[in-house]
Each structure stands twice: as C-alpha cells, then as structure tokens.
Amino acid sequence: MATIQRFIVRPAASTDVSELRNIQGWSDKIQKRLYGEVNFNHLVENAVLALSALDQDGKIVGFCALLHGPTTTFDKESEYAQKALKWAKAEALSKKHDPGSTLWLRVCMSDSGCAQKVANSLLQRAFAAQPGIKSILAVGPQGFGEEMSIHAHFSEIAASEKHGLSVFECMRQKVLPTLRVRRACVEDHDDLVPVLTRAEQRGAALASLPGSVDPGQQFALARLIRAQDTTNVVLVAENAQGELVGLMALTSAINVRALQRSFELEVYDNLQDPPEEEEAVPENFDEDDKVPEEEAKVGDGGEEAEREEGAEGEEAEDRPKRKSAGTPTGTPNSSDGRAEDDEKPAGEEAVLGDDMDVEFREAPEEEEAEEEADEADDDSLPALPSVAFAVSMFCLDMAYEAQSEDFLAPAFEAFPEKDYCLLTIPHEAPEPVLLRTYTRVLSKPTSMFPEVLYLTHRAGSLPGFGVRQAQEGDLDSVRALMSTFENRKVMYERFMEQLAQDIAMVALCQGQVVGLAVVNVDVDLQELSTNFALKQCVDMAHHAEDHLAELEICILNPIFNHHRRYFLTEIMRIIGTTCLTLRVGPEQMATEVVLPDFFQVPGRRLVSADPAPYALFVLTRKLAARHKPNVNARLVVCGASETGLACLEHLLQCPYARFSAITLLAPSGVHVGGIAGLYDTSSVAKLGLDAQVQILDARMVGLDRGAHEVHLSDGSTLKYECLLLCTGLQDQTRARLGIQPHDQVPVYTYQDIRNELTEEEGAQLQGVVVYGNTLDAVSCITTLLARGVPAAAILHVKPPKQENKITKLIMQAMIDVYAKAGMDVQLPACEEGLTLTRVDFDEQGAAVVFDKGGQPVVMGCDLLVTCDTPDVDPAVFYALNDSSVVYDGRLVVDADFCTNDRDIYSAGTLAKFSRRYTNSFEMEKFNSREVGTMLAESILRRFVGSAAAKSTHDRFTAPEPKMPKGVGSFLPGKMYGMYIALPHVFTLDDEHEGRRTKREPLCRATEGHFEMHLDDYGTIVSILYVGTRRVDMARLSCIMGLNANYLDQLPAKVEGNQVRDILDFVGSPWASALFHDKFPDLRDTILADVMRREKDPKSDASGLALANLVQCAVLKFVQDNASELVAYAVPEE
C-alpha cells in the first residue's frame, strides 16, 4: 500500500516568494547556473502552473513553475537564445511531444534534505492538475540532469554541443502510473473491504453499498460482485504493485423518464438515441441567414473541417439566450459500431434499476406520487432506448484520487452500446475528483430530485482536443454551433470581423470543430479599474494593458465542457495575453458556458460619471490553476432586500467556491434605489444576478422543515438545504384588513405608488388618503405631489402612535428650513389620532373607516395608500410559527444568524439576536450591507470552511455592527431629508439619545439645515441634513467614525467662522482622498505602523518620525491612485 504524501502541495501565492530563498540547500548561484534569472513574482502570476510544497509545519520546502514553452539561462532577447529555443522545440516535436499535451519546466527547487520526495510531490500535483498533459520537458545546461530534484524524474532525450544544452523529459506514466482496471471477482472481497472502509471513514459521497445487497449484513460487497450481469458491472483498480485501491459499480438500468422530469436534458437528446435524419442546413440557419460565399472568404483559407450536425455550445448548468436546445450528435466517433439496444423502454425501470438499489436509483416518493400527473408530459417524448449507464458506487484511496479517470475507458467498454455515463451525489456532498471530466446538468426550477446529476460522454475522453485560430474552412461548423442562439446573426458577424484580425478561435477534437471563441484585444483598463476592484483579484503589476483581452463569445459542444479551462488558457497563449476579462450584462452574447471558470470582480463604490452596467469576471493563468469547487447545496434566499442582495454579493464573489444552486424569491422583481439606498441599478448590474441566480417572482407562504421544502405563492414548491430569510419588514395594512395580494382594490403601498403611478393618472385623482406616521408616508406625499396630485386632494392620516424620533428630527428640520427660507409650500391636510379599522369598496372608490376615541370616522377617497410602521409578512410569520421556528417579536437567531433550525438562517430587520447575548444590538441598527455580509460569512463557514470566511466574534457574543446606517426621505418643496449615524447612536430612544456629548453640533449651511454631531473624542457620530441638494449618502458614510480633524481641523475652522457651508467644505477637491474606497486600508496601515513603532523601544516614535511616516504613506497612496485622485498634484519621484 502506497504511503500518503507527507507534503502539502498547493498553488503558489505571491506571499511565498519571500520564503523561497530560505529553502535549505538552495542559493542564487545554483539558480542562475540551472535556470538563469528568475522573476518569481511574475511566475506566480503568469505561469501555466506554479506550485509550492509545504512540510507538516507549514514551511515551504519546494517550488516549481511550468510554462507553455522552453526557456534557457541565456538572455532571452539574444539571437543565440532564440536559436537554442528553436532547437529545443524541434527536438521535442521530433520525439512526438505534442505542444497541446506538453509543458516546459521553468524552475524546480526543493529542500536538499528531501529533494527527490518534494520534487515527486510537485510533479504528481502538476500532472494531477493538468489531466491533458502527458509530459513535462526541461531545457538545461551541463550538469542540469544531476541536480537532485531533476535526476530521479527526468531523462535526457536530446543534447546539443553547439548550444551547450540538453532536453529532458518526465512522462506522466512515470510519476502517476495508470491504474490497471478490470472486472471484479468474488476473490477480491477481502482486499476491497479495507478500501471501502477507508472511503466510508472519509465520508466519500459514493462509498455506500446499494440497499439491495443488505449493506448491514456480512459479505454485502461479495453479493454485489456476484450479482454482475449485462446490466450491472463492478470494476476494480490495481496499482503498479498489484494492490487493489479502488472500486466502481455500474448499472444500465436507468429510469430516464424520472431524470427527464427533473433535469434539463434536451441538449443531450434526453439520454435517448435519436432517430437518424438526413443531413441538412443546421436548424434555424435558413438560406436567408447564410452569408454569401464571397463575403465569407477571409485570407487564404485553410483545411475544410468536418461538419458538425447540430453541435451545441452551452454548458448544461447555465441558461443561454436561445430558441431551442441543440444536440451533441455528430460528435467525433461518438458511437460508431454501437450494438443494437434491445432493452425495455427506460420508463419501465426504477431510476437506476431495482437490481442495484441505491438512493440515486430509487425514485423519490414525491416523484412517484407525481408520475401520473406527469404522464402527459412523458408521452410528448418518444419511447426510445436509453443511451446511458450510471455509476452507482465509487471509492478510491486518497493517494490515487488523481487517477480516478482511469476508470472511465473500462466503464465505457463494459457498455459498448451506451454513450453517456451518469453519476449523482447528494447536494451537500463535496465533489469527488472523478467529476472533473463530468458536466453538471442543470435541474429544472421545481425539481424535487434529491441529488445532483452529472454526466460525461464517450467522445469527451477522445484524444486530440486542441485549439487554433479559425480558418475559412471552419465556417460551416461555426454556423452549426451558433444555429440555436437567437442572436446568431450578430454573433456570426462579430466572428467574421475578428476572423479577419486572427483573433477568432476554434476548438477541435480529432479534426472536427467542437467549439469557438471570439476575443477582443481592445480593453479599456481605465474603465474597468474605475468601476471594479481589479486589484483584489489580479496583481495588475504583472498584466500590462496590452496583455488584456475580452472574451466576447464562447461556444463549446457540451460533451467537451470539461476542457473549458484548457480552451481558455490556450486562447491566452495563442493571442499572447495574460488576462481574459468577461462582461455579463445587457449586450452579452454567448459566454455562459465558461462563466463558472472565471472569477467575479467586486464592483467599486467609486464610479465614473457613466457607471458600468455590467458584471466583470476575470481569468489569469494563476486563477485557472486554482481549484474552485462547486457548492451544490440548494440555497433559497427569501427576499430581495438590501440584506439579501449583500449576502448574495458576498457569496457570488467568493474566490474559494462557486455556489451553483441559489434561488432568490423576489416578488415583483429586484427593486433598488431611494435616497438612503445602498444599491442602485448599476451596483445591482455589477452582481450579475441573472447569470448566476435563479430569480423567481414568488413569495414564501409555507414551510415544511422535515421535508426541507418552501411552499410558494404560485403553488410551486422548492427544496432547500439552506434557507435564508431576508424578507425584512414592510407595511402590512393590506394583510391586516384581510386584502389578499391578488385582490384588485384601491389600497396601495408607497412602493406601488412610486413604481406604477403616472402623472396622467395622478392628475385625475380627487381624493387620496395617506395613512401612516413614517418617513415613507412623507415620501409618498412628496411623490403624489410630483405626479400631479393636488395638495388639496391629499389627506395625511396619522395613527395614535408615538412618532419615530428620526422622523421627528427630519420633519422639524424641514419646518425650520421652510421658515428660514420663507417658503410657502402647500402641504396636505393632516388628521392625527385615527386608527384604520376597515375599508369598504364600491364602484365610486373606497370608504375608509377609522376609529377615533371609540367613534367611527368615515372618509371617502379614490385610493388609500398605507405607510404604517413596517411589520413581518403574515404569510412568513404563520409559516415559521406553524413549523415551530422560534419567533419572539422577531425571528430569534444566534451569533451565526442561525435559528433553532440549523438549516434556516435569518438576518436584517426580520431577525434579532437571542437574549443570551448581553452585547447584542437590535438588527435595525445594522447597516443592511454589513449584516448581509455577516450572514454570507456564516454560510461560507458552513459550506466552504473557515479559510473562506472570517469571524470577528466568538460563539458567546453577538456580532457588533461598525458601519453607519442611514435613512432618508423625499420632502415637499423639492427637498431631501436624511439622517446617518453610527450604530450605537442610530436609534433615538428619547429626546436626547444620540446626543450623549456636551459638544455642540457643527452647524454651517448656506441653504437648508445641516448638523454634524461629534462625541467627546471629536469622532463624527451622526449627520442630519434637510435641503434642496441631493447628497450622496454613501459618500457621507465615508467620514462617519473619523475624527473631525481629518477634515482639515473642521471644528476649529467652524468656530473661527472660516467655513460657511460644511457640505461644500467636505466636498472640495482637497478632501477627495477621504472618500476613496481604498482610504480605510490606508488608515488601517498607518495606525498599525504607528502602534508598532510605539511598542518597539528601538523604533523612532518621535512626532517628526511619525509625521514623516504618515506623509510618505499618503504620498504613495496618491501616487498609486493618481488616475482617480486628479485633484492632487503628484510630485515626481
């Protein structure tokens, strides 16, 4: 039995570079002799693969980097070096080392105490990470082959006395020998039991024995092996020493109907053998769509590629913009010579047959109950034989996981008449290594299937997959690939434009075109850097603007989807770029197939005058080498609130995992904006929700905790592994009056008025009652006046409840502004102390009945607008209450935002922390974006691990908010009102709450009303503004929590009457750095450096030294961001 490696090998990080020089037995002299000058930082960012090896103590003991081409110790620009490299490439080709399956070693260094073992670990990981690579070559001078990390693994295959160089090879078979896979026999039982036991102990997703063999009884594995026949097969794998290390059970008894009901299988011919059809012009590309032959010719042309009949360019897990799904027929040698399938129609079988009874194969009870209801749908599909078999059990020792694919060829040989191999795993199970050659199939929105479906095609493992520039002879195949897309004409025109520029690419397998890509090399780096935090994902110091390119179109036959990253890295190699960008927005063409391989770039708060209306994704060679596992757990997010959007933003932008099954319940869609809104249409566009999240226009109305189901308002049901309740609180007057959501009655909310009322309709209204004593009520009145409703036609009715103190502050400031400016603003009449009890309807409108001191008051109106104190949606409340989820005025959660059900989370105004936390704040005091991010961190800790999420609290304390929270309102007289404060002063419990300081507020304004409150330390804790200027609240948030002296000694200047208007003062160009989104990082760095100096007695902590430290840090900050901080004169270095 092989010993598990004792070294951890992972992708190299830029932080590793400083430690490389400390590797024992390695020196600059050795490095220059063997490899010449090496820029390690550049290699880490741009090598095809850069790996670091760590020992058990976390110390770096090895490093290697692989490139697409050879390098030498000579000056690479010299003619001599170019001739040497040309010789090395020619020798490689002469030894049949194909460039598409070969990488070149740039550097390999290892600890002298364990050089061979470290090098072996690095090479094993390299071959495992690059399944298509068959050999690694190296070019070195005399003595290169004697270096300890090279000697044991590389063999000399060519030498040149003229150049003083030799070429060495390391074959995959030498480092990762192919496993010998054969049919199992009963005699293998005793050797397989330890393999199975180890897999079960690791919790491997497919390690469970089928229920049909009584797994709890002795010799269940022997019974499984003995039951083999033409339908059921068991394979075992032996290592080079003849030891059994793995097991795979297969079956062809599949209920295709059950899978067709649950998954989007049309693109795979519904796993059935389609009837033969005559070759014709690809569907949806009629004669009118064809480009005339004389217009299609570009350049000298090339070889005529074989025509692909209906090849599909869409990964099954994504949603393209297309008319109909295509079919992967016409794949290279996909089923030639296939035997006739004389099985029964698949619909008569269990999901995977009764003889091999496991969870995947048993149809869930829900599906069995729905079979009759779906019978009509089933009849719409022809009863054709299935062309698929399935993996029902799989286990392999960890030391050999990288060789999982060695099972596939024997598996297809066991079922020569089948084209597809299926596999399912539970939603919460991690993906086994075997799945890197599989494609995840998109489930249907209301699928109740309990597991995730993957498949791979027989032709997907064929050799000869490559990438080259497109040629004229490829155009028929290109049209076939585009034929099912609605915007195929635009795509084809763009392909022809870029074909003329030699930046249109095709992917081929055995000479047949199976994919295409269109690239644009004109990338506006300034626009991208202004709108997106590129430096968070990519070290731009190693990616010049002329080395960036944008992927505009990418289509790939779905059975080759597992070659996506190779396709992308080959595109970068051919066009000479180091970074690919991808935009997801309104003008996006076909790029969904590769979206999972890209990394999303966070949007920036600092935006240009013309903000980018799209989401940005990037891919570099470094990122392409990073494993980004799928999290298949079904996450259902209830509510498109700012908290819910912030949670989604953080999950989607996680670089360590991809959440592939998120559903957002957004009744009436995603609505953002408002004075205090943390999201606008541009920031939502930067999330790329439509491409990554299933958005449903429905509400949660029921919950079944035991079945993990959410019942929706449209009558459908969703399964979940994790339910996130972010519905927040809204006005519930309609529900309190017994009005159903679908009832067409003249009772509306402020959101309805803002989104639907037109000026033409407003001018016709003669009586409108606005009920409520909230800021929404004030905003609603302002909106009604702006939409043409006369002030005399509006009546503001206030219930007998205590007015919110923030509302009172803003309204009092508004009255003061009116008086100060002498404004004569017509305000609606107001009635106070009335409680709404009933609404009667007739053809003339509504009769609203109020209670005042026990006496009914009736008012007639055209419509009633309710803006009362927000509360929980009754449907949500009853769903939670009936399911025994603890609700105590709010939904009770722990420090991880988890309710008493570990699979149900909640955050935002709907939730509150348990009373056991003495430090807990009310959730209303949280900034919605901050609390949404905290919720996402909890989800990441659960599904990805602590490495992907940070926690600022322990389980005995509740999270404490730090970001300011703001509210705002539109006010009559074309004015705006807003209040923003730090969490601990946000909610006003009494008249003096939030003014817990003896300091007078700073008040200076040439128009309107402005107050800035400071605490006893001079920290800005709250701001109140009412005026005609629409102030950017996100901008004001940047100075909250700062000492007022950051604002150029503002308190002293106000006291000395040197500032007439504080808003104008802080908005001056000199202060622009304070509002830059990277300023908090600068501040943290300076504070850390100052504290370090003060603690170190050997450091100079004098005032002059600290002032110089701050000055240098600020100067560097301005220089690094000079393109955005244009108000500052940057001195020359």
Describe the protein in words.
The protein is α/β, with parallel strands linked by helices and 1133 residues long. It has 35 helices and 45 strands. A seven-stranded mixed beta sheet has the order 1-2-3-4-5-7-6, sandwiched between helices. Strands 8-9-10-11-12-14-13 form a seven-stranded mixed beta sheet, sandwiched between helices. A seven-stranded mixed beta sheet has the order 15-16-17-18-19-21-20, with helices on both faces. Strand 6 (155-160) and strand 7 (165-171) form a beta hairpin. The model is unreliable at 1-5, 278-284, 291-330, 333-350, 352-378 and 989-995 (pLDDT under 50).
- What's the helical proportion of residues? 25-40%
Distance between the termini: 62 Å
User: Quaternary state, please?
Assistant: single chain
Give the structural class: alpha/beta
Which shape, going by the Cα principal axes?
Answer: globular
Rounded average pLDDT = 85
| Residue share in β-strands | 15-25%
* E-strand count: 45
Largest β sheet strand count, sense and barrel closure: 7 strands, mixed
Q: Give Rg in angstroms.
A: 33 Å
SS element count, helices? 35
In spatial order, strands of the major sheet run 1-2-3-4-5-7-6
Low-confidence stretches: 1-5, 278-284, 291-330, 333-350, 352-378, 989-995
What secondary-structure arrangement, pairings included, does this model have?
Elements: E1 8-11, H1 17-20, H2 28-35, H3 40-46, E2 49-54, E3 60-67, H4 79-94, E4 102-110, H5 115-129, E5 135-141, H6 148-151, E6 155-160, E7 165-171, H7 172-175, E8 180-183, H8 189-202, H9 220-226, E9 232-238, E10 244-251, H10 256-262, H11 293-296, H12 365-370, H13 375-379, E11 388-396, H14 408-414, E12 420-426, E13 439-440, E14 451-457, E15 465-469, H15 475-482, H16 488-500, E16 504-509, E17 512-520, H17 525-531, E18 548-556, H18 564-575, E19 579-584, E20 599-600, E21 615-620, H19 621-624, E22 630-631, E23 635-638, H20 642-652, E24 658-659, E25 662-665, H21 681-685, H22 689-692, E26 694-696, E27 700-704, E28 709-712, E29 717-719, E30 722-725, H23 733-736, E31 747-749, H24 750-756, H25 759-764, E32 768-771, H26 775-786, E33 794-798, H27 805-821, E34 829-832, E35 835-842, E36 845-852, E37 855-861, E38 863-866, H28 874-882, E39 891-893, E40 904-906, E41 911-913, H29 928-943, E42 965-971, E43 975-981, H30 983-986, E44 1009-1014, E45 1020-1027, H31 1033-1037, H32 1050-1055, H33 1062-1066, H34 1079-1095, H35 1103-1120
Parallel strand pairs: 4-5, 11-12, 18-19, 22-24, 23-25, 23-30, 25-26, 30-40, 31-38, 32-33, 32-38, 33-34, 39-41
Antiparallel strand pairs: 1-2, 2-3, 3-4, 5-7, 6-7, 8-9, 9-10, 10-11, 12-14, 13-14, 15-16, 16-17, 17-18, 19-21, 20-21, 27-28, 28-29, 35-36, 36-37, 42-43, 43-45, 44-45
Helix pairs in contact: 20-29, 34-35
